[in-house]
Each structure stands twice: as structure tokens, then as C-alpha cells.
């Protein structure tokens, strides 16, 4: 199935509508915390979202950029690699990973 336009959320017959909405809630809370510089809280919310959709490349990428905000570069690198394993064409994950490898 194709990703929903909202945050790469996957709609599949396996997921209930409640799971999709819960994913979206945690993902959006993570974005809110990230924008406000509360990276640890953002990571927690993105991880909660990821538990509902373990292969969601956008959630994996978001965890990576939040880890970068805490100077957790190794965890960020791991998150970008997981995002790229899930979606090899995820350009932001590629860009951030390459930037980390250049450090």
C-alpha cells in the first residue's frame, strides 16, 4: 500500500484505525517537542510511534535528528541506517548520515 500523505503513515489491513491515529498522535507530539528543543521528550514520543509502526522510515529518521540534537551521534547514525534499511530512497536520512560520516 502507498504511504498516507501525513508523515509517511502506512495504512494496511493489519493496522487498526486506532493504531494509525495513535501513531500519528505520538509522531506529532515528537515533532512538537523537537521544534521546541526538547529532544529527549521528542525521542520518547518518536519511539512510542515506532512501536506501532516499527519499519516507519520517517519515524526512524526523526529519532535520528532528535539524537543529533542531544549530541548522540552514534544513536543518530544507527537510526538513519535503520531508516534507510526500511526505505533506501529516504533522502533526508541519506543526507544526515553522510554529514555524520564526514565528522
Characterization of this structure:
The protein is an all-alpha fold and 103 residues long. The protein has a single domain, classed as Tetratricopeptide repeat domain (Serine Threonine Protein Phosphatase 5, Tetratricopeptide repeat, Alpha Horseshoe). It has helices at residues 17-35, 39-52, 57-69, 73-86, 91-101. Helix 1 (17-35) packs antiparallel against helix 2 and helix 2 packs antiparallel against helix 3. It is globular, with a radius of gyration of 13 Å. The chain starts with 16 loop residues before the first helix and ends with a helix. The relative contact order is 0.12. Residues 1-6 and 9-13 have low confidence and may be disordered.
Helix and strand topology:
Blueprint: H1 17-35, H2 39-52, H3 57-69, H4 73-86, H5 91-101
Helix pairs in contact: 1-2, 2-3, 3-4, 4-5
Amino acid at each position: 500500500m502507498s504511504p498516507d500523505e501525513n508523515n509517511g503513515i502506512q495504512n494496511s489491513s493489519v493496522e487498526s484505525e486506532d493504531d494509525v491515529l495513535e501513531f500519528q498522535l505520538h509522531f506529532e507530539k515528537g515533532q512538537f517537542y523537537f521544534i521546541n528543543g526538547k529532544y529527549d521528550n521528542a525521542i520518547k514520543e518518536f519511539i512510542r510511534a515506532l512501536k506501532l509502526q516499527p519499519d516507519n522510515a520517517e519515524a526512524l529518521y526523526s529519532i535520528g535528528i532528535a539524537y543529533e540534537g542531544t549530541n548522540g551521534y552514534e544513536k543518530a547514525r544507527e537510526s538513519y541506517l535503520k531508516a534507510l534499511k526500511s526505505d533506501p530512497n529516504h533522502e533526508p536520512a541519506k543526507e544526515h548520515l553522510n554529514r555524520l560520516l564526514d565528522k
